[in-house]
Known about the structure:
Structural class of chain B: alpha+beta
Oligomer: heterodimer
Shape of chain B: globular
Shape of chain A: globular
Distance between the termini of chain A: 43 Å
Distance between the termini of chain B: 11 Å
Helix content of chain A: 10-25%
Largest sheet of chain A: 5 strands, parallel
CATH class of chain B: Alpha Beta
Strand content of chain B: 25-35%
Amino acid sequence: MGVVIVGAGLGGLRAAETLRAKGYTGAITIVGDEPHHPYNRPPLSKEALLGGVDVDGLLFRRRESLDDVEWILGNAAVASDLSARTVTLADGTVLPFDGLVIASGIRPRRLPIPGPKDGRTCLRTIEEARAVRDRLTPDARVLILGAGFIGCEAAATARKLGAEATVVALDEQPMIRPLGAELGAAMRRRHEDQGVHFHLGQSIEAFHGDDRVRSATLSDGTELPADIVIEAVGSVPNVEWLEGNGLDLSDGVLVDSAMQVSNEAGANVVAVGDVARHPDALFGPVARRIEHWNIPTETGRRAGATLAALLAGEEPDRGPFTAMPSFWSDQYDHKIQSFGLPGLATSTRVADGDVDGPCIVEYHDDRGLVGVVGVDRTQDLVPYRKEIAARADC
Amino acid sequence: MTVRIHVDMDKCQHYGQCCFEADDVFQLDDAGKLVYSTEADDSRREAVESAADVCPMQAITVE
C-alpha cells in the first residue's frame, strides 16, 4: 500500500517530491507508460531536435528524498477502481493504494487522414524526436500539420537544419490562440523570412505513397511533396483508465482548488498537470486544463501537500489555487515569453515596440490585463506579470 | 553553511523564471541576460531549489 502516482512526467515527480517534503514517509510507486524516468519535453522540438537527443541531458534531477520510490516504467495504467482503491496496469498488475495521484498527462491528437501511416509522426516522446531527427536531412521535405507552438518550433528547427518546411493548419494565423491574430501574423512573417511555407485555412484530405507518405493533398486541391510529416494538432487527456468511477472526465479530470477529485470514492485522490482541470483564482471560477510547462510543478506541489495532509488525517488547505501560467518559445533567434492566458482576451493592444520587432503585447478581458506576450523583451515583462498576479486579490 | 549555485550558461536561455523564485540570487540585466550569485545563505536553500525546479532548460545546479 502507500501512494501510487500514475504518470512519470513532471507533475508526478513534483507531487512525489512534495509528499516527502511535507512529511509523508510511506511507500511511493510511480507508474509511467514510457520507458524513461521523468524528462523535459520542450527541447524535443528545439535543442534536442537540432543537436541530437541525449536522454541523460533531458532527465529531471531526482532528489535524494525519492531514492526509495519504486518506478514501474514502460507499463501504462489501463483501469482503476477508486472504491476498491486499486489501479490495474497493462501487464495485469493490480496496485492497491491508500492515496492516488492522477498524473497521466496527455497524448497528441491524431487525425484520421486516409493514406499511408508510415512517415507520419508526432513530437512528444524521446523516441519520436529521434525518429524525426534521423530524417531531418538538409534535402528533406518536411510537412508540418498544425501551426501551434510545437509545429512552429519544429518548422524553425527544420529550417535551421537546411530542410524544407511547410506548415498546414486550419487556423488563419500561426499560434493564433496564444498570441492573437496580429502577433500571430507577425510571427508568420518571421517564419516566411526564413523560408517556411504556410498553407493556412487548410486541412489535409489524404496522404499518398505506396509504402510510406510521399505527398499530401490539401483541402484546396494543392498537392505537396513530403518526406516526413510532423503532426502537432493538439492533445487528448489520458483519462480512459479512470472511467467507471463516476468522475467528471469531460475534459481531463475535474479537481477542486486543493487538486482533489470531486467524488466520494476519490477521497484520497488528487490530479496534477496537463490532465487536471482545475480552477485558478487569477481567471475566475471556471476550471481549465492549462498545458503550460510550469503548471505540472504548481499543481504537483499543491496536490502533494493535499495528499500528505489527507494521509496524515488532517484537513488540507482548501484556499484558492493561484498559478501564473507561463510559456516560452524559441523560434530562430527570437524569444517569445508569455504570462497569464492571452487566449481569454477580448481585446489586444501592442503596448511597446512593433510586432515585427521586439515588442510587448497586452491582452485584456473585462477584468483588465489577462495576459502579456513579449518578443525579445523578457526582462521587461515583470510589471505586467505583477499586474496579472494582482487579479487574484480582486 | 552556504548554498552553492551553478548555471550551465550553454543551456540557459535567459527566460528568467528563476528570478521569480529567488530574485536576490537571480536577475536579468538590462540586456535580458541572466546574472546570478554563485553562493547564497542556507536560509535561501528552499528558494534556490525552487528556482532550479522551474528552470525550463533545467540549467541550474544546487549544492
